[in-house]
């Protein structure tokens, strides 16, 4: 409904002004949409902008009145207010299952996210990547895109060589009930301590790195065992966070199938390449001072070489590539983009994010100083259970624990996604679990309240007559949901959806407190119940697109 109305206003304005760009924007507090086209035209036509706005209003108000749009002016600003027909149409649309979905698009999209080194469990520093990537994936699917989500497994890195050495030399048993990725982390930490105590071990690590690149079967098996073990634990954590991947891509596959060698041959032929002992690319034309090194003097490749082969493969299979990377990858990410451009390949769009941490400070897997994502979820789940028990002591324990699990994951995800990705943030469980503030539990509770109202109401005949300030504000916000989905796709900034969901909860609660629903009578009662149902469905769709369970009882 929003897009149709926006398009109608835009078309009528173009016909009345002759301008291609009619400068249509959000109307703020005064209107649903506004145009500053009178400013642009006044300069050219040497007329008073306010007088010109009045002329434009006179030309468009008739055609738009037929569409239920009211046109006003404030000085040079032309304002458009959506009328009762729009509001009724929005509420009708919002009752449909899957509300907010956009038409199916042409082309395919690949989103790569998380891709943490498989040398230990995901920690708090990783999960912002996972939550941003998964939320983008959910939004893109809702926006009609054919999408695949990938995790790039670095199974040839130095960290894996260190883990494989630890398995062979340290005899560290796995504890009963210990997750595989946590076990691998213990081996990795112990191996690093051994290397610090005896630097001669580094030569063996280098030997393993050379053998893995040569495809030595025994070494391939050692590396694969370590990576597979860790990957299974990582997958379990991702499942707890509601962040599934469609495909896990192994870095070594691009060495084994010759793809890396082929792309390095292409790079060697570039005039920007240098061949003095190493293979590197001069990217000074893109503003980089240092060369992009792809092969060492001993003939072994670096991670970037395999990454280029991976992206060449992705570019051959997908129309749009999106990577989610931490801010510490800005340099290598930009170098990758520049080299792909030199090769004439599709370069990935990169969503960079600053880091999330805990009040305890920074984390390092190598030093063994980190709080795992599993530990964080466990702790928040217990705190959520305590909160649910205080609020709903009459519920069976099993039901309280189910609600707590949904609330905990929602709290973690929402607290991460609500902050724009260029800002660093500290996760505070007290804020994340606050049922009364800007949190997932607050939005989930608003959804549950709507469900409760509808359950108490029983059957009713839908009606679509709205006039109060609270009714209109909520209905018009509901109408913006498809726009928010499109905005996230256009800007790759998923925090817009988190803000929208919280604002929707705010407006629903304001409506609920201002306008009686169950105590109203006749058409008014039915119309308000219909609006409650539309709000409930919109909150459900928004929460699920955020990867958060829309629980019906809290």
Please, could you describe this protein's structure?
By secondary structure, this protein is α/β, with parallel strands linked by helices. 56% of the residues lie in helices and 11% in strands. It is built from 21 helices and 14 strands. The strands form 4 sheets. A 5-stranded parallel sheet has the order 7-6-5-11-12, with helices on both faces. Strands 1-2-4-3 form a 4-stranded antiparallel sheet. The chain is flat, with a radius of gyration of 28 Å. About 1% of the residues have low confidence.
Please summarize what this structure is:
With 554 residues, the chain is an alpha/beta fold. It has helices at 2-17, 37-45, 49-65, 84-94, 124-142, 158-169, 180-197, 201-214, 217-240, 253-256, 259-268, 303-317, 330-342, 373-391, 397-417, 429-432, 440-457, 469-479, 481-491, 495-514, 522-545, and strands at 24-26, 33-35, 69-74, 77-82, 108-112, 146-153, 247-250, 273-274, 279-281, 292-295, 320-326, 349-353, 356-357, 425-426. The chain contains 21 helices and 14 strands.
């Amino acid at each position: 409904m929003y897009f149709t109305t926006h398009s109608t206003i835009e078309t009528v304005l173009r016909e009345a002004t002759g301008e291609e760009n009619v400068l249509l924007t959000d109307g703020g507090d005064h209107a649903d949409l506004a145009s500053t086209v009178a400013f642009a035209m006044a300069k050219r036509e040497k007329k008073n902008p306010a007088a010109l706005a009045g002329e434009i209003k006179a030309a468009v108000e008739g055609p738009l009145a037929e569409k239920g749009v009211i046109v006003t002016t404030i000085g040079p600003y032309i304002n458009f207010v959506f009328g009762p027909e729009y509001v009724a149409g929005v509420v009708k649309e919002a009752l449909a299952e899957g509300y907010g979905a956009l038409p199916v698009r042409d082309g395919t999209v690949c989103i790569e996210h998380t891709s943490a080194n498989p040398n230990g469990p995901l920690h708090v520093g990783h999960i912002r990547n996972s939550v941003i990537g998964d939320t983008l994936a959910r939004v893109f699917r809702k926006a009609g895109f054919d999408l695949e989500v990938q995790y790039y497994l670095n199974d040839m890195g130095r960290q894996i060589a260190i883990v494989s050495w630890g398995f062979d030399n340290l005899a560290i048993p796995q504890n009963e009930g210990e997750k595989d990725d946590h076990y691998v982390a213990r081996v990795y930490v112990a191996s690093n301590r051994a290397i610090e105590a005896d630097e001669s071990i580094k030569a063996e690590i280098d030997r393993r790195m050379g053998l893995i690149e040569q495809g030595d079967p025994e070494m391939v098996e050692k590396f694969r065992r370590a990576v597979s073990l860790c990957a299974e634990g990582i997958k379990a954590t991702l499942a707890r966070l509601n962040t599934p991947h469609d495909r896990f891509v192994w870095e070594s596959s691009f060495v084994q199938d010759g793809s890396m060698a082929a792309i390095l041959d292409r790079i060697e032929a570039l005039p920007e390449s240098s061949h003095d002992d190493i293979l590197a690319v001069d990217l000074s034309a893109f503003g980089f001072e240092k060369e992009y090194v792809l092969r060492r003097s001993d003939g072994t490749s670096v991670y970037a070489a395999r990454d280029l082969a991976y992206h060449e493969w992705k570019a051959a299979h997908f129309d749009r590539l999106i990577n989610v990377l931490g801010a510490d990858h800005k340099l290598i990410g930009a170098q990758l983009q520049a080299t792909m451009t030199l090769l004439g390949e599709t370069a990935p769009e990169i969503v960079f994010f600053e880091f999330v941490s805990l009040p305890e400070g920074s984390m390092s897997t190598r030093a063994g100083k980190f709080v795992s994502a599993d530990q964080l979820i466990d702790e928040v789940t217990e705190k959520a259970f305590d909160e649910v028990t205080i609020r709903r002591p009459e519920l069976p324990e099993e039901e309280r624990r189910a609600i707590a699990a949904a609330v905990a994951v929602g709290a973690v995800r929402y607290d991460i996604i609500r902050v724009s990705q260029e800002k660093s943030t500290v996760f505070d469980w007290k804020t994340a679990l606050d049922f009364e503030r800007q949190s997932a539990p607050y939005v989930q509770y608003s959804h549950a309240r709507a469900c409760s109202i509808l359950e108490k109401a029983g059957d009713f005949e839908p009606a679509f007559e709205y006039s109060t300030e609270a009714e209109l504000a909520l209905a018009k916000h509901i109408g913006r949901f498809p726009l928010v989905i499109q905005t996230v796709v256009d800007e790759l900034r998923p925090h817009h959806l988190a803000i929208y969901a919280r604002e929707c909860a705010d407006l629903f609660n304001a409506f609920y407190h201002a306008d009686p629903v169950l105590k109203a009578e006749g058409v008014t009662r039915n119309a308000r119940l219909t609006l409650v149902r539309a709000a409930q469905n919109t909150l459900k769709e928004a929460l699920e697109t955020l990867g958060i369970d829309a629980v019906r009882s809290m």
